[in-house]
Design a protein that fits this description.
alpha+beta; four-stranded antiparallel beta sheet; four-stranded mixed beta sheet; 17% strand; flat
Length: 382
Amino acid sequence: MKSTKGIESILSKLEKTSAKLEDLCMVRQGIVSSADKVITRNYSLLHPDTIQQHNIKIGDGIFLLTKKELEELNIPKAECKLIKYFYQNVDIGSYVPEKPSWSEDKFLIYTTKDIRIEDYQVIYKHLVKFKAILSSKRETKQGKIPWFSLHWPRGQELFEDVKIVSPHYRFKRPFIYSEGDFYTSDENYVIKKKPKVLENGKYILGILNSDLLDVWYINRLTLKGSGYEFLGEKLQQIPIRRIDFTNPKEVKIHDKLVSLVDNIIEFKKRLATFNQFFPKTRLTRLTENAPLPDIDIEAIVKSLTSSSLRTFRTHSEIKYEPKAVESFYLKGVRKGDAKTIILTSKSKQQITLTAPNKVLEYLDEILPVYAGKEWQEIINHI
């Protein structure tokens, strides 16, 4: 919907009668670490002896750790205050933070120039392995940054309490609302309401995610790939209708919009819990008439409580012959007659399953996932 004369007239009027987002909120980029992990470019800065001594590999986390890497460090409780759960660009849903099933948990070591790194011995021993990399940070206007500090940590208050977050690129509904900690990188912008602003943050969010501003974004932002660039300077210029809080009619409109956004947030939160059952899909981003994607039956089964689960061993309607098989590793699955499935092994053994049609349909879909698995494991888990 690029500008026509009529649309341009509407947008110009909107801009003249509205404040700018920067009048209501601070808009800041997220954290720049200088070294999330070891990459080809910085690996060469490490001394060969250091690499050998600590078995350092490309891909190893420095400031940004996987859950496994964090567990292996075994950080004591006193040092855990420097560890922050980290949200990546993919974790920004629609209206709410949203962890998709394919996004790995990440954790940030949040260090600044003001801490005494010697007071955090486990974290110090981890970071000092990469000192040659961390010492290569460029100087800032404030001078040289200590080797152990994030390059641009920003202030912790930016990532805590109530805030709106926007990714760099998105096509529709790019803004989310977060009331808890939300530490994130410079891939995203954090928007925090200024102290004397009376408008509720959810009112601002509702405006930012509105159909009207979708038109503004299409005509005022740069299209890049499959989305528009929501960069700092442009974000600050977004028009926001201010509320005259001495006017009861305007207050009523404000409160109504806040209530609607509240309902949307709660709905999106509930909807996001079902993402785990739809591989590679974000239910919260589906358009109104979009078809529902294929469901992951195995994920549904795994989500059930132990009291609700039935395995081959315990399901009253599943029968299999022979009962005793040795060294059976599943090779293939094929349909037998109308009520059976036949399993084959590499050694050409066969097991025949008998069950009701609905159960067979499920087994026919799920069993191929277990190809190469031993029979005992299969009957204990399916």
